[in-house]
Amino acid sequence: MLDPVGRVALITGGSRGIGREVLRRLHGSGWLVSAGIRNAGKLVAGPDLMLHRWDAEAEGSSEAWVAATMARFGRIDAVINAAGINPKGLLLDPDESAHDAMWRVNVKAPMRVIRAAWPHLVASGEGRVVNLSSLSGKRVANENIGYAMSKFAVVALTQEVRRLGWEHGIRATAVCPGFVATEMTLGAKFPREAMSRPEDVAALVEMVLRLPNTASVGELKVNCRFEALL
Ligand SMILES: NC(=O)c1ccc[n+]([C@@H]2O[C@H](COP(=O)([O-])OP(=O)(O)OC[C@H]3O[C@@H](n4cnc5c(N)ncnc54)[C@H](OP(=O)(O)O)[C@@H]3O)[C@@H](O)[C@H]2O)c1
């Protein structure tokens, strides 16, 4: 396993939910963490935790964040894309605004963070990318087809990172959970206590970040209930 001490991780979505648990876990285990966030909330910056304003929908945001992280820490070894949204985007509703928002936030924003960090991930020689997709990126099981399409696209993005980055030592993983008990699932018709916990998803993220180049996991499906084909 890779030694995380001194390695630098960029993370989006660190203000809440899964991203916050990943941030906590990495911060507590030797990583230098740079969080791209809109609102710091209760997060407090420190010598090994940098907070930088990042909005998934703002042009130039990823480039500015990567530049500031390089100025502060001098290297980037990992990108964790956890920011995401799930407004309802239906097949038969002609209003496509939710579809467009999910394409911008769930797909194009992680692509831009990866693109901005790319030369530094290459320089690392052991660059890592973890993208939060979803079981909704593996099959269609409810009416929010816009969310599913965006999460299928995140799987495609992850596969392209693996293809293009492999010879440079970059390894990428799409993490695909079912229900996770965060604000995103507050309205879900599924018992909260039976959902996956964000801290358990964070433990999986940390594990794949630490696997060596010779033991890469491209996709992790995380179930909180039985599904025959997953
Ligand atoms: N919860 C689940 O059941 C579940 C299952 C499978 C996959 N996922 C995926 O896992 C990831 C994390 O989900 P979660 O459950 O932790 O969600 P969450 O609790 O709703 O948190 C969403 C995170 O995304 C950030 N975000 C949203 N829009 C943003 C924007 N325009 N710019 C910057 N940051 C933005 C939020 O920041 P603010 O605090 O600034 O709003 C927040 O940190 C998402 O990609 C989600 O699709 C979740």
UniProtKB/TrEMBL annotation:
Keywords for this protein: Oxidoreductase
Pfam families in the cross-refs: adh_short
PROSITE patterns for the chain: ADH_SHORT (PS00061)
Top-level taxon of the source organism: Bacteria
Family, per entry: Belongs to the short-chain dehydrogenases/reductases (SDR) family.
Descriptive protein name: SDR family NAD(P)-dependent oxidoreductase
Source species of the chain: Falsiroseomonas tokyonensis
